[in-house]
Specification:
alpha+beta; 5-stranded antiparallel sheet; 13% strand; elongated; 545 residues; 3-stranded antiparallel sheet; single chain
Length: 545
Amino acid sequence: MTLRKLLLFTLTTLLSFSAFAQNNEGPEVTLQTPYNTIDVHLHYLQPDSYEPGKSAQAIYGITDSVRAQNLAIKLKQVLDGKGLYVQMNKLPQNADYVEDSSAQRQVYTLFPRELPEVYVEKIDGRWYYSEETVSNIPKLHETVYPYGTDLLLNLLPKLGQNKFLGLAVWQYLGLAFIIVISFLLHAIFSRVLSPIVKRFSSSKIYPSLIEPRLIKRIAQLLSVLLIIRIIKVLLPPLQLPIQAANFTFLVIKIVTTILIVLILLRILDIMLRYARVYTQKTDSKLDEQLMPILQRTLQSVVVVGGIIQILRLIDVDVTALIAGLSIGGLALALAAQDTVKNLFGSLTIFLDRPFQIGDWINFSGVDGTVEEVGFRSTRVRTFENSLVYVPNGRLADMIVNNYGLRVYRRFNTKINITYDTPTHIIDKFVEGLKEIVKSHPQTRKDYFEIHLNGMSSSSLDILFYIFFEVGSWSDELSAKHDILKAILDLAKTLGVSFAFPSSSIYVETFPEKGEKATRFMSDESELDTELQKFLQQYKAGLKKG
């Protein structure tokens, strides 16, 4: 559909132009100025003022008149074939014109950007197409009319010279041929390119990651791009009116730029899809948060690059435009320093990665879980379920305590037992506590401290200082639950009573506790047996869990 609209638009544009000559007046052949030399060359090769002998006088260093005429004709065909319209009113009419004051020669370049090798030069007081230009004409002609298309320059006009709306019959026939062949080639190229694009974009590991619709779209865009290139080769032999040709080639360049931008955007989409799959495999979640921002940034770069190229094509001074935007951007940055600070803070967070999505962090009295890291602010879900938005500029300067990066999570408490607990039972109780820690799969085995550590007013205090090796707070609570339940079961098994503060004095002996304590006091071997039986049951329970 894109190609059809482009071709119909181009044809309509061409029909709206009538034939234009580069110059209609017969100039005197003086060659005293760049204006006169170029005017002589172009004017005497127009259909209504065709005198190639006069035109060839602008060619320097060629004594063979036939060869000079041939070179003059080819040079005009190069200009016409590339759609380069010479604006006569802008040509210098000063005999002593100097294009570059630092240069040693007096020269004038017709199209510095498109054809820097084509220029006129003052030689022996007269202006000619330079020796370098003359030597480059055959090569330039072959470039503009490749694959033998220059033969059509003599063949096609013989098909019909009658004109309608500024174009000859043979030119209409040529345009019709280009339109028909373009649609046929588009149908062929789209089908041929689809499997090629699929092969380069698909993966055996993720065969369904790229949809067939996206592959088909890329193939169609590539097909249109190839058709545009073919049209660009076929148009010069038609020798369209110069203004029409100039406009047509400008449209072709703009459309080519747009097609390249669209293709790059879709290729970028494919690359980012694979990047998302990769980020999902990493432990960090910040890279997943970064992907949408990265996508928008890269897309903006491609689009802005395309816009700059289009502005260059329509002769907009991009350098001055960028300079103006830079000054405006500086003023905007000064007026929005906080926003700029937040952007740099975001960059710092993304590079240093002090935390990631899902981490439990604490800063300036805020305690919660990171939910989102944006370009301006970070969103934290507190444990009260409220949302806190922190500007990244401020967050980058704060001291952030990241609990989410802990390898081990500490559990420090005191186990208070009654004063009437015998010392050998305390030893067995502490030994059992250590075995509980050693046996649990989520505790740190190389470092923990469990000792009788204090004598409070109402209890003997056992320090219980261990670490859990878990990934989340929920796992920590679950492991802590298992440990505390095992401590209660161990105390019940050994007859150990927990002490608690009280303002009254009680003399009380629980039947079960008294019975076990009395029995264990007289028979320590039975105490060991009870401890080993408990530990076996505890370990068996862990394996089942």
